[in-house]
Amino acid sequence: MAQPLTVPSMTAGADFVLRPWEMSDLPLIREAAGDDYIPLITTIPSPYSDEAAEAYVRRQWHRAAAGTGYPFTIARTRDRRPVGSIGLWLADAAEGRASLGYWMTAPARRQGVTGAALRSVTTWALHELRIPRVQLLVEPWNTASVRTAESAGYRREGLLRGWQEIGGSRRDMLMYARLNSDRPSGDRVPTGS
Ligand SMILES: CC(C)(COP(=O)(O)OP(=O)(O)OC[C@H]1O[C@@H](n2cnc3c(N)ncnc32)[C@H](O)[C@@H]1OP(=O)(O)O)[C@@H](O)C(=O)NCCC(=O)NCCS
User: Fold this and answer.
1) Taking a C-beta distance cutoff of 8 angstroms, is the pair 75, 84 a contact?
2) Domain at 10-179: CATH code
3) pLDDT of residue 1
4) Which residue has its alpha carbon closest to ligand 1 atom 21?
5) Cα separation, 106 vs 169, whole angstroms
6) 42 close to ligand 1 (CB < 6 Angstrom)
7) Ligand 1 pocket residue status of 144, Cβ below 6 Å
8) Does ligand 1 come within 6 angstroms of the Cβ of 38?
């Protein structure tokens, strides 16, 4: 069995912090549950209930305790109000790979927050945890996520056809990755270069 993990806190840009999930984060789950897409790619309960949301928070705690990954909420530094989520998952850690997933509540989008969070977790994973490769999967239509990945220096590697089921249909996914041998964090890699 993998070692239990302690989810650290870290900054994400000047105004946001990444921190472990708290039981007081239920309003964040309620907001995410109302999104069209987030419940399809996560286990965020939709329709929302307090009971299911509490179970969601406990699942995040369990993931760290079981050593399967680091789940963070993205919160405003000034009042700790959570606005989104990012996770680093270690199912393939023995092979030198980790994967990431993220989402942001709609009112907090387009402010650079997820990009900053992704840069922080990526730098930490590559250079402090010393994971050789971090990767993430994005549906080709998802321009917001493509741009977020590219803004954090992820490089597009290819299209995985019919990779997974989302919302009842098989979906193609773009594979994005960064290696700890790539250029320093924050470098933008233009698509098609
Ligand atoms: C994808 C998502 C997390 C982006 O979050 P965000 O906080 O708005 O992202 P940021 O503000 O940090 O933007 C990062 C980059 O993406 C660009 N971007 C964000 N949303 C965009 C959109 N709708 N269209 C075009 N570009 C967009 C930003 O301009 C920025 O690029 P830049 O650095 O070149 O200016 C958010 O749209 C979301 O939660 N979507 C639903 C869940 C989801 O798709 N998760 C990812 C699954 S792979």
Assistant:
1) no
2) 3.40.630.30
3) 60
4) 144
5) 24
6) no
7) yes
8) yes
What is the CA(101)–ligand 1 centre distance, in A?
12
Q: Block means of pLDDT (10 residues each) for the chain, length 193 residues?
A: 91 97 98 98 98 98 98 97 98 97 98 98 97 98 98 98 98 98 61 41
Question: What distance in Å separates the CA atoms of residue 50 and residue 37, rounded to the nearest whole number?
Answer: 20
The Å distance, Cα 125 to ligand 1 centre, comes to: 21
pLDDT the model gives residue 2: 79
In this structure, the residue with its CA closest to atom 23 of ligand 1 is 144
- Would the CB of 118 count as within 6 Å of ligand 1? no
What would you measure as the largest C-alpha separation in the chain, in angstroms? 48
What DSSP string describes 36-51? SSHHHHS---SS--HH
pLDDT of residue 190: 47
